[in-house]
Amino acid sequence: MLDWDDLRHFLAVAETGSTLAAGRRLRVSQTTAARRVAALEEALGLQLFDRRQAGYALTPAGEALLDRARAVAHAAGDFADAAGALARDAGGEVRVTAAAIIATTIMPPILRDLHHAHPAISIELDGSDELRDLAAGAADVAVRTGGPPDGPGLVARRLCDDEWTVYCSRGYAAEHGRPERRRDLPGHEFIGGGEPGVWRIYQSWLQANDLEAAVAMRHSTTTGLLAAVRSGAGLAVLPCLVADQDPDLVRCLRPLPKPERGLWLITHERLRRTPRVRTVLDFLAARLHALARASAG
């Protein structure tokens, strides 16, 4: 099998007339240049140069192959240029999936800034609690909460803990007082609901604290749940990463850490080095890390 590196040395010796000059051009030793030429001759079963005291002269076989070797070098250069252009081109569409409560709250300003920084990238945001199959190509990047993602070929980065606690609006706190301990919660009404992924966590917290009967109304969507809490209709259990960014909401209780739950940034191994996907992953990771630090502080 031919070695492209041997062809490079053949061309350098043919064009400079010596292994010394070829070595200087290629930044290798004279010995290496001579060895590479000899290896090519052995692989081809042909003598390409006559070794003379004045230098290396092409044989008829070497002359016959010189233009073809130059064509290979030109093709290799075109290949390298095309690969470099692809590596630099971070343009194109990236499909991002995130749970509805994340997609409708913290993602819009992040994606706005991503567009300003990388206008050649187009984002399709899927705000669904349904887990998309990244291996099957249903999405390129996922922002998810829960335990470690499990699936063939998934590459995941844990960004922070997924902590939840009780929130109310500033207006509610001014009118009814802000409960600061669990024993302060009886007598306050809760707004329940949200998508199934939100309500499952929320409801388990209410059950654990014997407060499920305090739910005065339920909304089927996260948007409705947040709107009701902002209006001052009652308290709600919400993810800290989301609620701490909302200027209308105030945290009531210290969150209970759940180390088994985290916020994850996920892609598939076949996409992790695709320039546009890599750009989106790095941008999301930096911004979500910053939000997590602000929430923890």
From TrEMBL:
Record GO terms (molecular function): DNA-binding transcription factor activity; sequence-specific DNA binding
UniProt keyword annotations, A-Z: DNA-binding, Transcription, Transcription regulation
Regions crossing the membrane: none
One Gene Ontology biological process: DNA-templated transcription
Superkingdom of the organism of origin: Bacteria
Domain HTH lysR-type: start-end pairs: 2-59
Family: Belongs to the LysR transcriptional regulatory family.
Protein name from the UniProt record: LysR family transcriptional regulator
Organism: Sphingomonas lenta
